[in-house]
Q: What sequence folds into this?
């Protein structure tokens, strides 16, 4: 999933946590931060198998499990919530392209956006594009499941943030920054591919 979806899921988790556990501003922020920080491992893609950031340790269940266990061990609610949020990020990433869930070198997940046939013919598929990354961006935004999920998560984020944590209403605004980054990328790649 794209970073805006993870951000929205973070707002959802933080809003629910605030309603039931009365978390403070810092805790609210940290839960949201843990929802999307994993995707910054994209800057280390060159070290990953196939230069895919989802093959890095950060996109496995282990960071979330470590934070969760640490939180349980020291009775720290924030660490428990952050661990759960990290795990949810990785689970959601299994829906679209899959992820190295157990850090075994094997991509696991529903992989709704890529087939085994695509994987076998990846070089040929990517050669049809002026920019190889276009394939992944277009496949994501042309998929009905991804579109519907993005819309549903967005609506849920707005509703839960406003009704369960209205004093932190301003957090949903940042969602639009992350969405605009992806929309800009899509538009730019569309221009390049159509030129």
A:
């Amino acid at each position: 999933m794209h970073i805006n979806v993870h951000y929205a899921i973070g707002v959802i988790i933080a809003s629910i946590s605030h309603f039931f556990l009365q978390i403070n501003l810092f805790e609210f922020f940290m839960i949201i931060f843990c929802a999307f920080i994993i995707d910054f491992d994209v800057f280390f893609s060159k070290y990953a198998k196939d230069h895919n950031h989802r093959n890095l340790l950060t996109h496995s269940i282990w960071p979330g499990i470590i934070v969760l266990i640490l939180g349980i061990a020291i009775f720290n609610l924030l660490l428990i919530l952050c661990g759960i949020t990290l795990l949810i990020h990785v689970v959601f990433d299994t829906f679209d392209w899959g992820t190295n869930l157990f850090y075994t070198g094997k991509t696991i997940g529903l992989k709704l956006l890529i087939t085994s046939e695509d994987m076998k013919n990846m070089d040929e598929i990517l050669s049809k594009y002026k920019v190889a990354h276009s394939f992944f961006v277009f496949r994501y935004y042309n998929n009905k499941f991804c579109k519907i999920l993005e819309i549903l998560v967005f609506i849920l984020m707005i509703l839960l943030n406003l009704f369960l944590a209205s004093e932190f209403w301003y957090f949903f605004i940042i969602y639009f920054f992350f969405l605009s980054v992806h929309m800009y990328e899509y538009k730019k790649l569309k221009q390049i591919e159509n030129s």
